[in-house]
Amino acid sequence: MSSYEASKLYRIRHSAAHIMAQAMLERFPEAKIAIGPPIEEGFYYDFDLPRPITEEDLQWVENRMKEIMRGDHPFVCREATPDEARKLFKDQPYKLELINDLVNGRVDDNGNPIAEPAERITLYTQDSFTDLCRGPHVENTHDINPDAVSITFKMPAGAYWRGDENREQLTRIYGTAWETPEELQDYLHRLEEAKRRDHRLVGEKLGLFTFSPLVGKGLPLWKPKGALLRDTLERWLRQVQLDNGYQPVVTPHIGNLNLYKTSGHYPYYKDSQYAPIQIDEEEFLLKPMNCPHHIMIYKSELRSYRDLPIRYAEFGTVYRYEQSGELHGLTRVRGFTVDDAHLFVTQEQLLKEFMDAVRIIQYVFNTLGLTDFRARVGIRDPQSEKYVGNSELWDKAAGIIIQACRELNLPHVVEEGEAAFYGPKLDFIIRDTLKREWQLGTVQVDYTLPERFELEYVSEENTRERPVMIHRAPFGSMERFIGILIEHFNGAFPVWLSPVQAVMIPITDRHIEYAESVAAQLRAAGIRVEVDGSKARMGAKIATAREQNIPYMLIVGDRDAAAGTVSVRLRTDEDLGAMPLAQFIEMAKGIIESKSLALN
Length: 600
Ligand SMILES: [Zn+2]
Ligand SMILES: [Zn+2]
Known about the structure:
- This protein is α+β, with helices and mostly antiparallel strands.
- The protein has 18 helices and 29 strands.
- The strands form 7 sheets. It has an 8-stranded mixed beta sheet with strand order 12-16-17-24-21-20-18-19, with helices on both faces.
- Helix 1 (8-27) crosses helix 2 (55-70), helix 6 (199-205) crosses helix 14 (478-489) and helix 11 (347-367) crosses helix 12.
- The longest helix is centred in the middle third of the chain and has 21 residues, at 347-367.
- The protein is globular.
- The structure holds zinc ion (2 copies).
- One zinc ion binds at residues 289-291, 342, 471.
């Protein structure tokens, strides 16, 4: 059980979900109810409704929920036989399906696969409503503060029963519940802010990327400014990698199906892959992962212990299936580029190489000001069958990761079921300015793929030994990472990442010539600059530049042209006044080269 599941907030939200279902059934007596688990920062419940839900319904339901909370209704737990439960839910087909699966040991009562066959079904009742549920709940509905609860309806909130596109489409209603009204207000504020910062809106406004229905869903098209931003990140990481002994490799976008059968990506990840493509007599997959390709480069030569560690890096594009309903801007796409690297190391080198890979990730995040992060050691769920390899090696690998965290003084939690299919991993979970958590950056230890591909090196004693692999990616997916950066910075990127770093604003037409000559000097100094030679008035030009979050606005008029100065205004509205051009260049270059988060 995670600490969240053990918390009071979890019980409050779980209970609020039951109360939402009660209120919904009062509003829609014919509604069919599905499942309603607590989630991060709230809860939801899925319904099959006789008609589309309106704002008015939702307001009614929210008011009714608060009324139920104010009442004195204990949450009462009892057990029933499967037949009693079936009778109780005879008009609720989704519940009947869950009961059958519980009895057969296929799911728990949140609909998640696992669980032993259940002989008794646990039920929770409050007031007039009973649900299949193992709890935990608050003791009484009045333990929830009605002023700390709200429905947060997300339109469109469609969801498929059991996440299966071939099953019924349900209406998902989201709510949130906190201990105090202040916490609720803070959350709603963050939600509003998140909407305002939505990377899809900001990306559109800044001209970073677009989508075309003719190209396809979940396939972003990077416009020049977005591509420049992405390229700046890539070039930076490429250099950091070169400085740390990584070697670039390049591999194709497809690979023979047998390659992925050997690696185990097929069939383990079959559901997230596209159907094989037939070329001549062979079948190929769009590359779901880069690892097997890099492995074949390792395998292309006989390796000696003197060659190791070998560190191969590639910005490798992979393709994974996502349901169309799950697609979301840049953060959930169907093709994305991983800043991937695979390290082939000896057992003796493993700890140091792992720690060095972690240090690069820490450096990357710190540089970007993403300093609020935690580390999670993901180990396999011993119950699950989706993992390959023997348990001794799994334990050994997990031991190395935990030891590395200790030696790096990196606070970490260990969580079951968060491993890759071939080995345990260390994930970095970032909290952005809106306190939202994102899983970025990962380092994995892998004994399994070297085994499956029979990788070898010749040892000092002239024996054949097996290397260990480290998989790592600081950004993870370039698409998702940039989506998160856009929201984190609300489009106001650090100067070194800004697609346009300075804009020349000539006060009138007769200052355009001077503005152009200044721009040429800035470009020569490596500063990305545009000249706003439009007919708009100066105030409007400043407003446009502010909209675009351009760090420096350089306003030039007669006096500047005569004295060789620029009047510098920051996107924060701070006015630095006139300064000699050389002085501005020195300041801006200093900020850019140091990757500072400041503007001056
Ligand atoms: Zn429940
Ligand atoms: Zn890999």
